[in-house]
């Protein structure tokens, strides 16, 4: 796992270094007592943190901290038009979620938003101070925009409510929150994975040369700096320069005076001197010796930016030299601060980059692994929203400024200009809503244009919604065929689920967090820097350190100390520094998520407090003993301790990926060695939420677990406690969902048991009838009759009643009646023109009898419109029969009257419906067999499902075999079995239970054929396995057509089931017919049954004519009548339209 | 071969289950009897439900399905016609029974059970045993369920709700014989090990007589463990595990709609009718 090279252990675990002598080594060999039930820390962890804590924490941080900082950074608006004018924000806060209308006194619940297609948002209000004429006015609580609120965040009304209160608000108590409701849609902002910012990355460019790159990112600016090698010489590459610039020139331009100084900063050892010599040579051949010369050289390479002609050119144009100096100060490595053009920090950093390149030239191990997870940062909802907010705020301020300027330019103003009246919340509100509902994140300042950031929360099953919240998207291109970023990295251990990733193009790019992973939020830097200095870090900033001291080459024993990627200084006793910082963290003096990482190869100590690092809690082990004892666990069970107390008392701590490299982590107590520093809380936490459902996953072939992760999300079951109050576009529910017989700890922790998705089916593993080949299942008809696999499908059908510009309105017409007899289509309608709930809708029935005014543009004062002024635009049912379950009437915030009809149909399993066990073994129903034909055992039990044994050998899903065994034992014992990953009931114990109840220990039974009454000649593996019904059902897919609609343009049959399309005879089928020589059939399929068209062709000129007349020859004598596909006729005409004349040469046969 | 007379020997008779041994007949006959009991013994079950008001959490189809699965007493099922064979157009007293259910919850919660189903025919009503009636739906305060249900005669072949049985099974009577000659030659350790090799304790070792005997043959699940062990010690003929020919131990467990003996008798008479039909048709065809 995360262990450093063995000989370095003494170095990297300083706590052991001096304490090693203090205890008795002989006692180390004693077996370490197991801390029973240390897994109880896991529910305690989830109780305080929850499964989607990372989202909520991130949002809370944004809403409570970050938003204030952003406001501070953009607090003042001034204008050149009136120097006295200003607008200043003082305080900013996010209020309670509310709706614009007064339907419920302003307050709004998330569920109301879902139903009414509203956005669950809260006003952002600011205290402002501004000038009105000559007065200075202060206003409090001015709404500048509305922010969509994350459910269960600190601003959400659901936070802190108990299950009863939640139920009253129409909310499900086991729903995780962490998503937004935007125009009635539940939207998740996916976690975005990125390469970490402000760190030096040594990599190989496409010419296999070592180069160093830094992506700098600060609040104001983002830039990328590269140091590259060409022919053994080093160059600086930045976008703002037209050309690569020799690195020595840059260093000289930054004020490094002598070559000796440069060498001392890069490294005075011979290797470094040799490596940089060629670059020096180049600098001299360019005849650059002084700073001025260097700046002039750089100035000549600046890209000329063409400003738009409308903007006035700055009057005081600076010289090239000034400009070059500016670029070096602000663009180059923009995260390293430069004050008063003192470049010392910056050239220290740049020389370090050079040094690293030269090192990597000699030693390829020094090249960084881009896929290493310590180099990754996760961007969460909070960060993304703060980016968006700053952009929107700038836009808002600019708009205000423009309004102010245009107002000041007016010559004679009647009223005194009051800017607060111009502060419309629309800019910010709409910006947020647009971003979240489309998923397009466009921040012009950073040239950021990302799409697919948000997704509609998948509510197919409870686990799919939960799994969606832990999902993570990588910024990597999906089309590139590189395996590196896709493959499982050892450093992802414990942080990301190794099983849960999709198959196909997004494989390995879309990942899921493991159960205990936490993603950090930003933490204050200055106190940490101060602390490090107090602990003996010598600052680079102060001009006291020489190059040798920094590089450590001249016999100096200093380690560089970095804080969030910036050089802080050097420390002569890095182990002591790291140890002290860790001790302070365990004492709670430093935030728990600060990480300290000692990198011996790079002679560096990295301290990180930035946001987006993944970390996980571990039990601290010292002197070979875990700090958490049974006593602690008892206190935890008794409720005296909470998880946070374990943190506060320094019993457990969070480690991020980098710091894991400095530790020795034991999985079990028995593995603890003298140099062990940490102990896993529970090995099952390496898996994520979806993989946690699989019983005995450690016995399965790994791709099977991956398949199940994808399928668990398609399983039909209960989705939430409020499922029957929801009106979703599409909702699948199971009639009798069951808890799985074999469960896992994850199942208990996630609440899957409360909203399960599947049923325990008694399975006989045998072949039967031949309708079970290729993974097809045999189903017992009686089981289906009794409710096995039965499901409910609820669908939303929305109609809006619009208001038109001339104030005319759509209306609902009463059902038509003639002589007291209802119109056939209107039979199901209530008197209000909407379907009566409970009615069955058949094909052709009208369910909303809407009428639209004929005149929607001209203003017509006729208030009482007659029927003649409307035409019918009814919603008609066109599908399989369903029941109208619910009708909802409401209005959206856009003043639209909204009618939502929920249709319901109950389905029993039929031939072709898809089922799957929890081991990636899916199959369709091949045949449904009567109960009396099913085999039965001596007790008379017959299977619900017969599964073909050929499913096992090649897939090696041993977990499924053990699940059956465990389930069977559980049935007889009257309890649930456990199949927890890396644990669970042992097969030996299970077998003992089976034998106790008079069954074969191997789970095999003697069955008797239901058809003949003879005993089967083999023992049949027989018992319960949890089966999931998947959403793919034949009823939604089955399709056939004889005649039907055709596309307008080509006159070929339409495509797809939804359009009642034809079934395509594709290229490969065509090839078969050609090979077979069935030309008549080919002709019929491709032309006669598709788009046959009769055209007239002139035999003379070969052009198409019309109705026996050739327009070209002006003759009707030479016309022939032929049948061709309409598409080819269309082609001829389109060719003619582009001045190409296709001519047909006709011949008599 | 002399003509055989199948025999029935009743082993156990309870209110809702019975065990009997059918002997001197073939597996085909035994299986035919089993199949008829499951699939073709007619009972009454709710088949049509008309909802007047349903404000419960479960929707109409859900409740209708649950109602259908409630067993109804069907001892007098003969007096009804199958609806499809009845002379009426829709349904009538001769082919159906009407049930009424009307429950309104005035307390905090209320369970609607099979006791709330009121039948129009005293012979056909929900099976009720002691005080566990079948829950149909749980109502919250203010919710109401009002419906009429029509029960019809049917067979299990059409829908499992018409099955009169929970379990109908037969098993072969195990025939386990120890070759005492070989057994006597074994040492005590092997004898004990042999007796313990059976996971379901078919054999017993008597310490006093130092013999192994077949104690509970009916426990046998034919797992062959004893055979494996005797093979291991090199005496493959030590024990014989087989079936007694032509003996079938039947277990019939009723769902409550019919008494177990009624199920068997009904099944037998159906079998008889079927055979009579065959006989009839054969006679007409061959025309002796």
From TrEMBL, chain A:
Domain RNA polymerase beta subunit protrusion residue range list: 50-429
GO CC annotation: DNA-directed RNA polymerase complex; nucleus
Catalyzed reactions: RNA(n) + a ribonucleoside 5'-triphosphate = RNA(n+1) + diphosphate
GO molecular-function terms, A-Z: DNA binding; DNA-directed RNA polymerase activity; metal ion binding; ribonucleoside binding
GO term, biological process aspect, one: transcription by RNA polymerase III
Keywords of this entry: DNA-directed RNA polymerase, Metal-binding, Nucleotidyltransferase, Nucleus, Transcription, Transferase, Zinc
InterPro entries assigned to the protein according to its UniProt record, in alphabetical order: DNA-dir_RNA_pol_su2, DNA-dir_RNAP_su2_dom, DNA-dir_RNAP_su2_hyb_sf, RNA_pol_bsu_CS, RNA_pol_bsu_protrusion, RNA_pol_Rpb2_2, RNA_pol_Rpb2_3, RNA_pol_Rpb2_4
Main location: nucleus
Function, as annotated: DNA-dependent RNA polymerase catalyzes the transcription of DNA into RNA using the four ribonucleoside triphosphates as substrates.
PANTHER family on file: DNA-DIRECTED RNA POLYMERASE I SUBUNIT 2 (PTHR20856)
Protein's UniProt name: DNA-directed RNA polymerase subunit beta
From TrEMBL, chain B:
Subcellular location: Nucleus
Molecular function GO terms recorded: DNA binding; DNA-directed RNA polymerase activity; protein dimerization activity
Gene3D superfamilies, A to Z: 3.30.70.20, DNA-directed RNA polymerase, insert domain, RNA polymerase, RBP11-like subunit
Domain DNA-directed RNA polymerase RpoA/D/Rpb3-type: 17-281
Superkingdom field: Eukaryota
One of the Pfam families matching this protein, by short name: RNA_pol_L
InterPro entries attached to this UniProt entry: DNA-dir_RNA_pol_30-40kDasu_CS (IPR001514), DNA-dir_RNA_pol_insert (IPR011262), DNA-dir_RNA_pol_RpoA/D/Rpb3 (IPR011263), RBP11-like (IPR036603), RNAP_Rpo3/Rpb3/RPAC1 (IPR022842), RNApol_insert_sf (IPR036643), Rpo3/RPB3_RNA_Pol_subunit (IPR050518)
Keyword vocabulary terms for this entry: DNA-directed RNA polymerase, Nucleus, Transcription
Gene Ontology annotations for the cellular component aspect, listed alphabetically: RNA polymerase II, core complex
Main location: nucleus
Any one Gene Ontology BP term: transcription by RNA polymerase II
Family the entry assigns: Belongs to the archaeal Rpo3/eukaryotic RPB3 RNA polymerase subunit family.
PANTHER family associated with the record: DNA-DIRECTED RNA POLYMERASE, DNA-DIRECTED RNA POLYMERASE II SUBUNIT RPB3
HAMAP family for the chain: RNApol_arch_Rpo3 (MF_00320)
NCBIfam families according to UniProt: PRK00783.1
Protein name as catalogued: DNA-directed RNA polymerase II subunit RPB3
Source organism: Planoprotostelium fungivorum
């Amino acid at each position: 796992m995360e262990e450093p090279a063995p000989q370095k252990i003494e170095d990297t675990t300083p706590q052991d270094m001096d304490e090693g002598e203090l205890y008795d080594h002989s006692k180390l060999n004693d077996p370490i007592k197991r801390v029973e039930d240390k897994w109880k820390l896991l529910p305690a962890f989830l109780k305080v943190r929850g499964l989607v804590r990372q989202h909520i924490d991130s949002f809370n941080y944004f809403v409570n901290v970050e938003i204030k900082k952003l406001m501070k950074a953009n607090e003042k608006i001034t204008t050149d038009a009136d120097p006295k004018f200003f607008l200043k924000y003082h305080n900013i806060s996010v209020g309670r979620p509310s709706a614009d209308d007064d339907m419920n006194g302003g307050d709004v619940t998330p569920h109301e938003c879902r139903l009414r297609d509203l956005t669950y948002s809260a006003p952002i209000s600011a205290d402002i101070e501004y000038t009105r004429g000559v007065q200075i006015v202060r206003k409090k609580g001015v709404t500048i925009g509305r922010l969509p609120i994350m459910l269960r965040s600190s601003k959400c009304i659901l936070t802190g409510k108990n299950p009863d209160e939640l139920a009253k608000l129409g909310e499900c108590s086991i729903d995780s929150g962490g998503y937004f409701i935007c125009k009635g849609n539940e939207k998740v902002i996916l976690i975005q994975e990125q390469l970490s910012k402000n760190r030096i990355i040594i990599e190989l460019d496409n010419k296999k040369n070592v180069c160093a790159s830094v992506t700098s990112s600060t609040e104001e600016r983002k830039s990328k700096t590269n140091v590259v090698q060409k022919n053994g010489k080093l160059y600086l590459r930045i976008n703002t320069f037209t050309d690569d610039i020799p690195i020595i020139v840059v260093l000289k331009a930054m004020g490094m005076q002598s070559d000796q100084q440069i060498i001392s900063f890069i490294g005075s050892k011979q290797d470094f001197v040799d490596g940089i010599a060629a670059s020096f040579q180049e600098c001299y051949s360019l005849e650059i010796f002084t700073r001025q010369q260097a700046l002039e050289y750089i100035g000549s390479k600046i890209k000329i930016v063409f400003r738009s002609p409308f903007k006035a050119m700055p009057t005081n144009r600076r010289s090239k030299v000034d400009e070059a100096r500016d670029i070096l100060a602000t663009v180059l490595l923009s995260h390293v601060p430069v004050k008063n053009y003192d470049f010392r920090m910056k050239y220290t950093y740049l020389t370090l980059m050079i040094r690293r390149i030269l090192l990597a030239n000699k030693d390829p191990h020094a090249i960084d692994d881009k896929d290493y997870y310590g180099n990754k940062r996760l961007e969460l909802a909070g960060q993304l929203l703060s980016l968006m907010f700053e952009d929107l705020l700038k836009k808002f301020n600019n708009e205000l400024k423009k309004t102010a300027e245009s107002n000041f330019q007016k010559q004679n103003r009647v009223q005194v200009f009051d800017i607060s009246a111009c502060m419309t919340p629309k800019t910010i509100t709409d910006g947020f809503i647009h971003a979240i509902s489309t998923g397009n994140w466009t921040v012009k300042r950073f040239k950021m244009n990302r799409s697919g950031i948000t997704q509609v929360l998948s509510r197919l099953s409870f686990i799919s919604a939960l799994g969606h919240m832990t999902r993570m998207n990588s910024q990597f291109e999906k089309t590139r065929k590189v395996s590196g970023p896709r493959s499982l990295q050892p450093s992802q251990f414990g942080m990301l689920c190794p099983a849960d990733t999709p198959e196909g193009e997004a494989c390995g790019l879309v990942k899921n967090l493991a159960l205990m992973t936490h993603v950090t939020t930003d933490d204050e830097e200055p106190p940490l820097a101060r602390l490090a200095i107090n602990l003996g870090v010598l600052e680079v900033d102060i001009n006291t350190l020489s190059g040798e001291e920094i590089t450590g080459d001249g016999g100096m024993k200093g380690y560089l100390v970095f804080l969030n990627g910036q050089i802080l200084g050097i420390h002569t006793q890095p182990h002591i520094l790291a140890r002290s910082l860790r001790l302070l963290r365990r004492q709670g003096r430093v935030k728990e998520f600060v990480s300290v990482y000692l990198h011996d190869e790079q002679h560096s100590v990295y301290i990180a407090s930035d946001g987006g690092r993944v970390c996980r809690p571990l039990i601290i082990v010292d002197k070979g003993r875990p700090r958490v004892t049974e006593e602690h666990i008892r206190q935890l069970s008794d409720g005296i301790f909470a998880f946070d107390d374990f943190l506060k008392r320094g019993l457990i701590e969070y480690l991020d990926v980098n710091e894991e490299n400095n530790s020795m982590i034991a999985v079990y107590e028995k593995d603890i060695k003298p140099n062990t520093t940490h102990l896993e809380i529970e090995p099952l936490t390496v898996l994520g939420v979806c993989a946690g459902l699989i019983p005995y996953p450690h016995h399965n072939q790994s791709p099977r677990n991956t398949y199940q992760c994808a399928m668990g999300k398609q399983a039909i079951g209960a989705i939430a406690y409020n499922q029957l109050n929801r009106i979703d576009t599409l909702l699948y529910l199971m009639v009798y969902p069951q808890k799985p017989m074999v469960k896992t700890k994850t199942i208990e922790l996630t609440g899957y048991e409360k909203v399960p998705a599947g049923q325990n089916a008694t399975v006989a593993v045998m072949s039967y009838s031949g309708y079970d080949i290729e993974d097809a299942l045999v189903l017992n008809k009686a089981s289906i009759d009794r409710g096995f696999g039965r499901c409910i499908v609820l669908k939303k059908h929305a109609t809006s009643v619009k208001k038109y510009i001339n104030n005319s309105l759509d209306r609902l017409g009463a059902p038509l009646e003639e002589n007291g007899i209802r119109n056939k289509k209107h039979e199901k309608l209530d008197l209000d023109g909407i379907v009566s709930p409970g009615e069955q809708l058949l094909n052709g029935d009208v369910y909303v009898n809407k009428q639209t005014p004929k005149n929607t543009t001209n203003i017509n004062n006729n208030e009482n419109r007659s029927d003649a002024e409307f035409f019918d635009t009814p919603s008609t049912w066109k599908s399989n029969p369903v029941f109208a379950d619910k009708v909802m009437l409401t209005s959206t915030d856009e003043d639209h009257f909204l009618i939502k009809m929920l249709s319901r149909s109950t389905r029993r399993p039929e031939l072709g419906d898809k089922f799957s066990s929890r081991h990636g073994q899916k199959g369709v129903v091949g045949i449904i067999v009567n109960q009396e034909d099913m085999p039965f055992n001596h007790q008379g039990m017959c299977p619900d499902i017969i599964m073909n044994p050929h499913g096992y050998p090649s897939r090696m899903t041993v977990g499924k075999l053990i699940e059956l065994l465990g389930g069977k034992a559980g049935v007889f014992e009257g309890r649930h079995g456990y199949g927890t990953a890396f644990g669970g009931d042992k097969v030996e114990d299970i077998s003992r239970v089976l034998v106790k109840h008079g069954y074969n220990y191997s789970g095999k039974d003697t069955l008797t054929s239901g058809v003949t009454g003879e005993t089967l000649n083999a023992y049949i593996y027989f018992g319960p396995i949890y089966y999931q019904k998947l959403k793919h059902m034949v009823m939604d897919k089955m399709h056939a057509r004889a005649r039907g609609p055709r596309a307008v343009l080509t006159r070929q049959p339409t495509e797809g089931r939804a359009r009642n399309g034809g079934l395509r005879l594709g290229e490969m089928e065509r090839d078969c017919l050609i090979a077979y020589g069935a030309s008549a059939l080919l002709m019929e399929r491709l032309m006669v049954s598709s788009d046959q068209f009769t055209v007239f062709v002139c035999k003379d000129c070969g052009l198409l004519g019309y109705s026996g007349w050739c327009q070209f020859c002006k003759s009707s004598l030479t016309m022939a009548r032929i049948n061709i596909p309409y598409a080819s006729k269309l082609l001829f005409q389109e060719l003619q339209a582009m001045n190409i004349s296709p001519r047909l040469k006709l011949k008599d046969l | 071969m002399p003509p055989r007379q199948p025999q029935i020997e009743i082993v156990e008779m309870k209110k809702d289950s019975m065990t009997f041994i059918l002997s001197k007949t073939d597996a085909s006959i035994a299986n035919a009897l089993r199949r008829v009991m499951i699939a073709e013994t007619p009972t009454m079950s709710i088949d049509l439900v008309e909802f007047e008001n349903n404000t419960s959490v479960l929707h109409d189809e859900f409740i209708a399905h649950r109602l259908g699965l409630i067993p109804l007493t069907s001892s007098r099922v003969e007096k009804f016609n199958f609806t499809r064979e009845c002379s009426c157009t829709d349904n009538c007293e001769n082919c159906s029974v009407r049930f009424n259910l009307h429950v309104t919850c005035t307390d905090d919660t209320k369970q609607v059970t099979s006791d709330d189903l009121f039948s129009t025919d005293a012979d056909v009503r929900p099976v009720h045993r002691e005080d566990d009636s079948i829950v149909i739906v749980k109502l919250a305060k203010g919710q109401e369920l009002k419906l009429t249900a029509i029960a019809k005669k049917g067979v299990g072949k059409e829908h499992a709700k018409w099955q009169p049985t929970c379990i109908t099974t037969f098993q072969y009577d195990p025939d386990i014989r120890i070759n005492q000659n070989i057994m006597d030659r074994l040492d005590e350790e092997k004898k004990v090990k042999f007796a313990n090799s059976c996971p379901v304790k078919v054999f017993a070792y008597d310490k006093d007589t130092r013999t192994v005997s077949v104690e509970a043959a009916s426990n046998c699940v034919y797992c062959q463990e004893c055979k494996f062990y005797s093979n291991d010690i090199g005496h493959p003929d030590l024990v014989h595990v087989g079936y007694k020919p032509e003996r079938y131990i039947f277990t019939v467990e009723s769902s409550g709609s019919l008494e177990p003996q009624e199920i068997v008798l009904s099944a037998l008479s159906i079998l008889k009718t079927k055979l009579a039909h065959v006989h009839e048709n054969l006679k007409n065809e061959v025309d002796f």
